[in-house]
Amino acid sequence: MGEISSQALEGLRHKIDEVDQELLHLLRRRLDLVADVGAIKHKEGVPIYAPAREASMLAKRRAEAEAMGVPPQLVEDLLRRMMRESYVSEKDVGFKRIATDIGPVVIVGGAGKLGSLFAQLFTLSGYEVRILDKEDWGDAETLCAGAGAVVISVPIALTEAVIARLPPLPPECVLLDLTSVKQAPLAAMLKVHAGPVLGLHPMFGPDVSSLAKQVVVVCHGRQEQSYQWLLEQIRIWGARLHEAPAAEHDQAMQLVQAMRHFTAFVYGVHLKREHADLEQLLQFSSPIYRLELAMVGRLFAQDPALYADIIFAQPDALARARHYLARYQEALAMLERGDKAAFCAEFDEVAHWFGDFAEQFRSESANMLMVANDGRVG
Fold it and tell me: How high is the pLDDT of residue 287?
């Protein structure tokens, strides 16, 4: 009986393998079609990310899946993963060049990771790209001669000094920076250059495979009309632009970046000092705790100077950290008193403050946790 059952199982597995092969051929066909789409987008200057088209397509496929008795979420997960791959494939085709009459794009710090990413994107869009790195300052005047745009992509702590060191730029040249602090770099650029100036903050790391769905914050400086070509070029790369005053940006970054990184740093220090066994922690972690631990570990896999710059460059970072410490001490006092009622009351107040976002974040995190659990090994 066991042998018959085993044969039946093997037969079914063979059929599943055949279906998987069919799926592979369909995926290959889809990637080929995506390449054709990418070529047309390149020619016509259409952004690689079209949110309305994506939302409409997903809604239709979900409805069709439900009618066929296939879990709609399964179909959406598969399609989203395929679309992510599609965006990467479309990027490889290249992009339409928006400004055909401007001079070279000079990337100051172009040998760095983020500078290299933008150098690649400008090159894929048909611009002449020149790199001005720390060993090239003797040729800075020559490299910047006739430049259509000069992009500052250096560590935060060096940004203002590098801007002050720039040679005179052509009047029509766009001067911009890519740092995560905006007020001070903008002021420095406006001081040294009388032409168009803007600040950009790419809200992603240099390891992204595509700019599709990524956010770039835009802080206007001077002569907005003169750099609209650049903003349109970034849209074509697939990014979403979010405009904000520099002061508002820096205020938000104190909470979104500086405090979050500082908290992760402190937690990492705590784990080390407690001699935590990371392998054991992973074995006992549910997907959400595993993801949280991964986000802390991710911090320590990167350049400490980068995060020191992000945290220390924020003018109110110390005050924010003291506020956080005070809230932690308040919560600790509840724990010391064993005051569960006070804890629940505070919990309810914060939940009310989050409002509908709490449910939205619960739903979003559920999807992320499923993906994290799928990738678990062992």
Answer: 84
